[in-house]
Amino acid sequence: MKAVLSKIALLVTLNLVSSWVNAQYSGPAVEACRAYALKDLQRGGGSADSVVLERDGSLSLERYSGKVGNQPVSSVLTGNGAVVYEGAPSAELSFICLLADEKRPVFFSWQARPNVPALAQCGRSQSLRGKEQACLELLLVTAEQDLSQVYAYRFQEANERGEKSLAAYRKANDEWREYRDAECARRREAAAKGASPEDVYAACMVELTRRRALDMR
User: Fold this and answer.
1) Rounded to an integer, what distance in angstroms lies between the CA atom of residue 107 and that of residue 72?
2) Tens-place pLDDT, residues 137-170
3) Which of 60, 70, 114, 136 is most deeply buried (CB count within 10 A of its CB)?
């Protein structure tokens, strides 16, 4: 099953089996896949409050003529979405949904999504709205902890190479933090009308810290 799914995902990505692509697709497959995903999570004992599938430029329905095992598949819906939890940051992910037809999903899978928007994570749960700052602070603590783990590993590597490598490692880390703080301060000053400048700043800190951890891995 996984091998077949990987093959389908690759074909979708390369557009080798598409008879047509509609990046602005808004037909019944979106709601069908959303409902299927929520039921799948609940069936597995998850505590998800709701599932969101974004109707944005990433959403794409592609025709596919084939089977997954014995199950015919006519189309593949891909895009971005989120699993929403009550009183907690949402899990922002990408997805792939296989359909027998546009109203009958047969398989749904979440996938890791890079560059997740922190403000979206703190704004989907109704109980967190108006409390975004506390939520963003929690996300930043988590991101900093993740980065610290990566830094510890890279520190050991640099230390083994000698003092020159260790000095370069420390310099890079110090200059990155200066960049992060300055860039987030810039975004705070450029916050759109109606947006909270402090929330924009905190979200930037979360996102750049996460990106740094990914870059250092």
Assistant:
1) 11
2) 999 999 999 999 999 999 999 999 999 999 999 9
3) 136
Q: CATH assignment of 127-216?
A: 1.20.1270.180
- 153, burial (CB in 10 Å: exposed 0-12, middle 13-18, buried 19+): exposed
The pTM assigned to this predicted structure is 0.80
Token pair 């015919």 is found at: 72
Locate CATH 1.20.1270.180 in the chain: 127-216
Which helix (H) or strand (E) segment is 180 a member of?
helix 163-189
- Answer for the pair 53, 36: CB distance below 8 angstroms, yes or no: no
CA dihedral over 135, 180, 82, 1, signed as positive or negative: negative
3-state secondary structure of 160: helix
Q: Give the pair of three-digit tokens for residue 201.
A: 């700043």
Q: How far apart are CA 110 and CA 40, in angstroms?
A: 11
Q: Three-state secondary structure along 85-116?
A: ECCEEEEEEEEEEEEEECCEEEEEEEECCCCC
The model's pLDDT over 20-43, given as tens digits with 9 standing for 90+, comes to 444 468 799 999 999 999 999 988
With CA atoms as reference, report the closest residue to 39 among 140, 123, 107. Answer: 107
Q: Which residue has the tokens 């089996």?
A: 17
